[in-house]
Amino acid sequence: MKLKQLAAQLYTIRDFLKTSADIAASLKKIHAIGYQSVQLSGLGPITESEIVQLCRDNDLTICATHEPGDTILNQPQTVVDRLQKLGCRITAYPYPNGINLGTLETVKEFCRRLNAAGKVLHEAGQTLCYHNHHHEFQRIGGTPVLEILYAETDPRYLQGEPDTYWVQHGGGDPVAWCTRLKGRLPILHLKDYTVTTDSKVTYAEIGNGNLNWEKILAAADAAGCQWYVVEQDECPGDPFDSLRQSFDYLKKFFQ
């Protein structure tokens, strides 16, 4: 694994991305930490050409994006056009907002829509991935929804962007899921999992929680993962400091 494959998910610093000036200052900080790549999400109003130039100015590769779920499902060509402007080939469906995951019939319909959208991206040389939370670990007929999603979609049209924290939170095994998605894992969200002194589960910087990162990263690498993206939904203090802590821990695994 190369250091250039280790990216920062900008959603982590979304409160510092409200304006073009904010974005420029934030990308400079991301580069100073040592990241060479970013995944776009949580940005305030900015054109594709502006964000491309700001990333170029800071020697940052745009490895992937998150696009609105409704846009992906209903206007996939809009997503294709945006990714082309960004010079990026990967995006992910971020969250099943308004989607009924409670019945096999509704889940299969969701799969049909993801497949159709992913086919549009695939034909444009792009890749649609699925970003899970814990919701997808509810079971239908004894099978987790996430297993159904991947079983009912074409690997050409839907790839994986598993989130290590949410897999663990849903009762899954991040290592096993990396292995399960071999050949279907272009991108992985790295997020640690810990328990507070008042027994609440929460996010943590990589290395400050309970996940086995040596095994997770080895399994992801064996599965063909291209991008390892650090994300922390909530941080105890400065999110840039959290991204730095994660980077400093992870860099020993990357050349």
> What are the secondary-structure elements, in order, as H or E?
EHEHEHHEHEEEHEHHEEEHEH
What is the CA-based Rg, rounded? 17 Å
- How many DSSP H or I helices? 10
Gap between N and C termini, in Å?
6 Å
Widest sheet, order of strands: 8-5-4-3-2-1-12-9
What portion of residues belong to β-strands?
Answer: 15-25%
Q: Tell me, rounded to a whole number, the average pLDDT.
A: 98
Principal-axes shape call: globular
Structure description:
The structure is a single chain. With 255 residues, the protein is an alpha/beta fold. It is built from ten helices and twelve strands. The strands form three sheets. Strands 8-5-4-3-2-1-12-9 form an eight-stranded parallel sheet. A two-stranded antiparallel sheet has the order 6-7. Strands 10-11 form a two-stranded antiparallel ribbon. α1 links the parallel β1 and β2. α1 packs parallel to α2. The longest helix is centred in the middle third of the chain and has 20 residues. The chain is globular. The termini are close together.
